[in-house]
Amino acid sequence: MGNLKVYLPNAMPENLFTRNELNSMGLVPIKPKEPDALVDFRQQKRVYKLYNIEKTRQPKMHNKTFSLVVRNNTIEDILEKRRLRKNAFM
Asked: Whole-prediction pTM value?
């Protein structure tokens, strides 16, 4: 993680997503150890890795696994949540 660009939560580009956001869409990053950028939540004192949506894939489905996590969000759903969160801080 050399020279990665660091964004604030209200200035994240629309093509970069955290692993949690990707997971809610049913996607995983191709190279999880090589993020494209970082997002710095200063109030929470947390920094999260951001991944480009174009560098993701569908995970392999295993018949024996069961998850209660709903993975039916779309990119638009995630972006709308970001807009709502951004408006809440203003």
From this structure: 0.79
Overall size of the chain counted in residues: 90
Q: Is the dihedral of CA 41, 39, 79, 67 positive or negative?
A: negative
Q: Which of 17, 30, 68 is nearest to 9 (CA)?
A: 17
Say if residue 83's pLDDT is above 90. Answer: no
Report the C-alpha gap between 52 and 54 in whole angstroms: 5
Per-residue confidence at 67, pLDDT binned at 50, 70, 90? low
Q: Residue 51 contacts by C-beta under 8 Å, 6 or more apart in sequence?
A: 16, 17, 18, 19, 22, 29, 32, 35, 36
